Amino acid sequence: MTVDKAHLLVVDDNELNRDMLSRRLERKGYTVDIAEDGYKALELIDQNTYDLMLLDIMMPGISGIDVLEQLRKTYSITDLPIIMATAKNDGQTIVQTLQLGANDYVTKPLQFAEVLARVQTQLSIRQQAQRSQTRTSGSFHKLEDNDSHKTFDTKIFCSSCRSALLHDEPKCPTCNSLRPPEGWPSRSNTLYPHLGTTIGERFFLEQFIDKGTTGSVYAARDLDLKRIFAAKIISLDGTAMGLSSEEVKQRTRLEVEAMVSLQNPHVVKIYEVTQISDTTFALVMDFVKGLSLGSILKRLGSLKPTLALNITRQVAQGLYEAHQLNMIHCDIKPDNIMLEKLPAGGYFAQILDFGIVHILDKPMNAEGFYGTPLYSAPERIREDMDVDHRADIYSLGAMLYHMIKGSPPYIDDNIYKVFNHHIHTPPPTIQGAINDPALEQALNRIIQRTMAKDPDQRFNSLRDLIKEIDAII
């Protein structure tokens, strides 16, 4: 299925509305079926396979909310994306439908350009999820039990692209760099000691990607499925981070629990935990083709406000589900957001690294500050304040400011001065970054509220922030 050949179902009790919408969608290349009420919609769903549904709420007999609730018992948000299309635009109804599993929400009178954009976005997300579901059906290894692995070593690598080389070739097959006169370097005594090895008897670590707070990330080729995953290598020796082995193990278990529990497409999925040695293991997860928001900001400086808001909205969608499961990420920053270009246009954001996640009913025992000071909420720095989901809202606001202004809200070479700014300095305003006064005012309103020092003055939930962003976009 390609996005422009998808099979859609339009459900609306108003004949004029459903016929007009279906004809316009068909002119865009979609195959469209129509249903005049909820009963007919459920009947068609049993008989056909649909890629997306546009569902009215107020219908005789069985409402769209009842249809949505019934379908979500069988179909996930990626199996069957559902966009609610209705004249009801009150916040309570919007929250209710999204909590029941609606993917998106448009209000009548429908603006076809908006409907089409949301349809294309949800279909692209569905395609992304289907590609990621071509996953291994192997076991989810326990951290303590899986010590079976074999070592397939190739010690040489290309220092230009940090890719393992299977043979002593004159040119790197990945980046075409020429072999140095002294020969290819050895990975021994480098920052990527696992490069060129095979873990779990099937994942060949063919390229070093990056080093994060809790581990190093490699591109891992599945030798069975011939597919690229990302492998995050974590050592239980946490002395470099000031942590004990038990603390690293605890944090990693929380990360695994968080990522397995979350089914939102805006959160990178994890598939396996593979033991490498007595003190080292790997999280095998989706490999996101794209760039981190951090690297894009380093290259471009800032983003257009509409793109920044769109990225913020997507991240908020992923975090909202985490918050519903009593999880907070604790390290929202540009480097932990991956952006992949979508086939139908735009960018798809995914959240990385729940490595310091704080599950509200399972607090960490480790003392001290974990995270990135540039985007940290005041309560995560102070010892006299409780931390809840609103800490992520603060960090998301700080990241939005960075995307638009081109730099984090508070910058100083002294980390303690940055902490002091987060605790005491009023949230900054965007001035001179955009030419639209009304948009500038709206963005400042969002930033001031997300970055309020008092959590009670922030958005109570990310659903409220998403609604505010939708009003602007």
What does this structure look like?
The protein is an alpha+beta fold. The protein has three domains: 130 residues, 3-Layer(aba) Sandwich (Rossmann fold); 130 residues, Phosphorylase Kinase, domain 1 (2-Layer Sandwich); 182 residues, Orthogonal Bundle (Transferase(Phosphotransferase), domain 1). The chain has a six-stranded antiparallel beta sheet, covered by helices on one side. β12 and β13 form a beta hairpin. It is globular, with a radius of gyration of 24 Å.
Break the fold down into its secondary structure elements and pairings:
Elements: E1 7-11, H1 15-27, E2 31-35, H2 38-47, E3 52-55, H3 64-71, E4 82-86, H4 91-100, E5 104-107, H5 112-132, E6 157-158, E7 163-164, E8 198-199, E9 203-211, E10 216-222, E11 227-235, H6 245-261, E12 270-275, E13 280-286, E14 291-292, H7 293-300, H8 305-324, E15 327-328, E16 337-341, E17 347-351, E18 358-359, H9 378-381, H10 390-405, H11 415-424, H12 437-450, H13 462-472
Parallel strand pairs: 1-2, 1-3, 3-4, 4-5
Antiparallel strand pairs: 6-7, 8-9, 9-10, 10-11, 11-13, 12-13, 14-16, 15-18, 16-17
Helix pairs in contact: 2-3, 8-10, 8-13, 10-12, 12-13
